[in-house]
Specification:
By secondary structure, the chain is mainly alpha-helical. The protein has helices at residues 2-10, 43-65, 72-91, 93-103, 107-126; strands at residues 24-25, 31-32. It is rod-shaped, with a radius of gyration of 36 Å. Mean pLDDT is 80; it is low at 16-24.
Length: 132
């Protein structure tokens, strides 16, 4: 009886379930302290941030397992290999057509020889499977 009378004396029914000015309601219904002026988040805010980050991490793991993501190091290795292949193929063009161009006295014939060799090189490079 003493506890019940103290409860009634210390509880105001009109204030029940109302927030104090500047405070936040925690997920469990308890009052949380307001965010301090120094920018430190409250417990509820920290918990919400943690849950959001856990969801993002789970999505990234799912996307990686689903094959939607690759590691940056792997992409860099693939790109480096492709650039090396392009460089090597372009450097092979002059020796490939030098003799034909040197023997030709006609500018249009030189142009067509170079055009054919460059086109062959570009077609060869574009026919590579990029999904390796």
């Amino acid at each position: 009886d003493l506890a019940v009378s103290a409860w009634k004396r210390n509880t105001t029914p009109s204030m029940k379930n109302k927030r104090k000015e500047g405070s936040l309601m925690a997920d469990d219904g308890s009052q949380d302290t307001p965010t301090p002026n120094d920018g430190t988040p409250t417990y509820s805010e920290s918990r919400a941030i943690r849950e959001m980050l856990n969801l993002r991490l789970a999505k990234l793991k799912y996307d990686e397992l689903a094959g939607l993501l690759i590691k940056v190091e792997h992409a860099a290795t693939v790109i480096e290999a492709d650039y090396s292949r392009v460089r090597a193929r372009l450097l092979a063009i002059p020796p490939e057509c030098a003799e034909s161009v040197a023997m030709s006295n006609d500018v249009s014939k030189c142009r067509s020889i170079l055009q054919a060799v460059v086109t062959d090189a570009l077609e060869e490079l574009s026919s590579v499977d990029l999904k390796k």
